[in-house]
């Protein structure tokens, strides 16, 4: 695993890029970076967490300041499931500093935002349906709208989660209940998902994936 350390923000949070399966080069991460959508045949994925959801926007949605690292993970495609790409950004990631060593991310972040692309809209919608069906067995499910598109919020004892499909991409936002009260989960997760949808264009213009909680 290659760990690349980028710039820090005024709050003291470090930005760490982790790419265990897709090589990447170190780059300065700016909280004001903007995406550059292209018409390339390859899936458009955020190059860093500032493109997907800047830390400041995440903290504004939550109403709290997060301590710990911001981590960026880019995973390889999974042909068996139809996944063509995935980026997961972690916010408030715990850090471990060995004696005389380099601080490294350790443990699950308080917030995880995943942007995932698939071969087509049907595959993306099917993945959302499966996730909602599986996770709803241990959570309370509510249907919401994100920019006019259907999404599902699942509030459980371990994690609060929003999942949705938009064309050939899916959005997954997860927040620890340690920092998010159950009654606030739908509104907060909806704001986070809207921020994520702003990156790029729908993988299948005009076709929004729909899922069922049944």
From TrEMBL:
Question: Positions of the region Disordered?
Answer: 1-22, 85-107
Write out the biased-composition intervals (Low complexity). 90-107
Question: Where is the sequence biased in composition, kind Polar residues?
Answer: 1-14
Instruction: Give the protein's recorded name.
Output: DUF3558 domain-containing protein
